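Q: Entry one of two.
A:
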Amino acid sequence: MNPKEIECIRKYLDSVDLVTSEIFSQKINYNEENLTVILCLLLDENSPLKEKLKYNLDELNIDLKKYNSKLGFKLVTNEHNKHYESNYSQADIGFVFTIKNPEFGTKKKPMLIQCKKLYPEAEKFSLKNKYKALKVSDEQFKEIKKLKKKKYNFCYLFYNPLFTSFFREDCMQGMQYEHSKRYGGCSTSLSNPGIKITNTETIEYILGLDETLSLENFYEYGTSRMFEEFSSFIIDILKCNYDIIDEESRDEQILLCEGKIVKKNVVEDYEKNPAKNTIYINYEKIEPEY
């Protein structure tokens, strides 16, 4: 990817980030499901909300064409309902990236995303507010660790409001964090916490230092790489900086991201090796049962 392509893609993704965060700032009691619907709608190429974006997907494609870009990418978002999430994916969204590069060909990359929001304690937010729905002691966290052991690609996405929704002192301190060298500097013009993404290892590390997770924890313990902006995360995937593909489980992960259950059929084979009773695992694609 050349600098012009990166600039255009970042501009589009930052627009999505900004609108999502603005809506959260206006509707602070929105839950993760509400915010996830909004995020997915904004990323949809036929989105009814695209007029809210300062720079939408149509404008992105026009500019890429103007710069004679040969890059082609598509991000499909699949929302997982509560039944599918709790029983199969442990994720709110399944991202499937399709990247077309004239040099490397076409690649598909799946990513399971669990979404959490910052909860206010009063009429405004503070840096000490927590992502209350994230607990290392709950079953979901344990199930996600099991998926990670199977080399599934899994990340946490955190919804944060604009700093205008914070108490003044927290707003000023938060902006200093965003621009500080310790955090890595703000790579966009947002100057807001916005949507951040991190991996499960970072969550385990921080929760090993504090019993609960707050926005302040991320700024204190994190780095720009550990607590990444939404646009930077997507761009790193497109640039192949994230090796998020495990070849052996790629097809299974894509099905899971798309909201299609992968059911294990266990077949016992006594004839080939009756002493060891070899077990064969086959995967069958079936439609979800709600």
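Q: Entry two of two.
A:
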Amino acid sequence: MGWHFLKKIFLYYFFSFIFLCLGCSVPRNDASSALGRQAISDAVNIALSEEDCTTAITLIEDLYSSENSDNYIRLLRASAQGCKAGLGNFFQFTGKLVNTTENPLAAVPSEGAYFWRTMAKLFYLEKTSSGATIVDSTGLDSRLDGALKATDALLASLKVPKTAVEFANQINTSGNNFGSIKASDRTADSNLYLMYISMAAIGILEDRYGYVSTTPPDKSTFKKGQKLGATGTNPTGWETAVNVDNNGCTYVASILNLKDAVGNVSENLPSGGLKTALSTVSSILNSFDAICTAACIVCGYTCDGCPIQLRNRNSCATDASSTNDEIARCAAAKIVETIDTSTVIGWVGP
């Protein structure tokens, strides 16, 4: 064995040791360094590939909240929280959405829009209590938390500088994830995933506040079990403007964010099942602009379509007396009333 060969072996292990030690000086979870951020991102992607939502969320949250957050990190956060919301497998959900034979979407006279039933079906969660099968309200609340946090991250994934976002469209202006409620301010990837997250929020809230009933859930049809948001002391639920609470406002905001996102991305989708499915959904949701316009007139205001601020789930604050909040509650209540009562585009049930 020659000297030159031994020298090469020595140098190989020597420099390997040096590089290993240098690598040790960069903590894998150090969000302040590019290598650390990449390591965190890689770990999140691995967790998501295994549908390990909890680990993905734990890994991404600090980085998302830091000054090092960017659009890629925001999409990772949306994916992690979306996993918690019930969208752990993006492609599997898309497959269900385009299978309109099993999961119909269209509006059928006297049967209403099957879209609402399908959203309730796809995000349904149940549990057994005292031997009876009931809607899992605790689990749905946890899923909703994921959907809302995912929404915030997606609204912050901008393609324009935040200085270009009109004041009326700004949201979450403090912190490191400034956002916009206007779809054209956001990236195509953001709007694409926001479609799915909005569907999750709609389905979760329907199961939580509309599908529930005193009898075992009817999983054969997924028809509405009660008026959306109804309680013992509030039988009309969110149909009444003063009773549109945060959940009611979130429901309507999710519908309008879905409407905007579909309109933003569908024209760029290739022909196929997804484009066809979204066209069906769009035809239903686009009806709400005229409904909002009419509602504003009844309430003594003027609005051209559904008010932009209603895309913000906090725009209906019932403890606020601002004109914008009143307009938002008025329009939200009319959308809910339409879904509750229309046999053409509504969610058929009581």
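A: Comment on entry two: The chain has one domain: 74-341. The radius of gyration is 24 Å.
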